[in-house]
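S1.2 Input.
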Amino acid sequence: MNCRHCGHLLTHTLIDLGTAPPSNAYLTAADLRGPERWYPLRVLVCDQCWLVQTEDFLEREHLFTNNYAYFSSISSTWLAHAEAYVAKVIGCLGLSARSLVVEVAANDGYLLQYVQKAGIPCLGIEPTASTAAAARAKGIPIIERFFGKALAEELAQAGKAADLMVANNVLAHVPDINDFVSGFALLLKPQGVATFEFPHLLRLVQEHQFDTIYHEHYSYLSLTTLQGIFAKNGLVVFDAETIPTHGGSLRVYAQRMGTGTQPISPRVAELLAQEEAAGVTKLSFYEELQTAAERIKDNLLLFLLEAKRQGRKVVGYGAAAKGNTLLNFAGIRADLLPYVVDKNPAKQGKFLPGSRIPIVSEAKIQQERPDNILILPWNLREEVLAQLNYVQEWGGQFMTAVPELHLWDTIVR
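S1.3 Output.
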């Protein structure tokens, strides 16, 4: 396989997680009577541009389907994050009723609802019918297509050039990253600004966040690599900051090459220096993740097996894609984790891909009072703890498995 950005032959492996079905391919009861498609889940490292990327097996249309079950508005933490971002960027850029905000991967309108509330015209681009319908129900105009150069050219010619383009947690989801990024350079106004948020590769490797790896993520990005990708496709990074979402992300600000007027922030050089010091341009930086993932898997399995032997009930919370990576890598099934609770109605009554563990409503926890609750979306830990604080009434204990097995008062190393 050749690098998706620079075309260099890929010969180095970051991690091999065996095989897995697509992490968001939730199953119905009828689906349980048939087979599932499993694909290798291996991540490679380009030693030229340092783009980390999942080995190519699936087209995007097979991953982001009409019944896509990830709805951003389910998380109150994420809604608060989006609302704060909108308030900040309106002030910084002086956006008004004469501006246009375009969000790529608008999902269910979780962010554009706040743009609309501020009286600023907006347009969402979202290829999955289920989430696009939810956004339209909020009154948000949506174009139901994948984004790239072709769509950008159409919109620009139709007078839809943007003052601000937003791309949250989508940059990693595109198979042709050059086509995707060049679309921003085409659709932005000459002095327009684009912001991108994505999980930071530095945190993924240093904190052993291997469960954020799944087929829907084609790329895993550092600022070092992204700066080169942007430069090749007509964008310049003028600011960047670390943010806490998804276990540690970057928010990158970019403008059109040659016409942008924003000054370059010293934070760009500071973050690049931080990555260089950590070793993101050295193969040794990528060598320990496999061992760490296997240790995490073993510790979780040992805990679940011992809990079963002792007659203690352990259940899961959060039917998240990262949880599916963890469960399928560890080979965990319903005999060790009988169900996973999720507050998304679109997931309840279905089954996790691969493990086929049932997804149920929160009422199940209140009825059965389990001994331990394994929080699979560990990045939302504080939100889950607040939501399920009543578990303390019967002495129930929360736990996470990544980056290490944590029982809040005991850490298994």
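S1.4 Remarks. Residues 12-56 form one domain.
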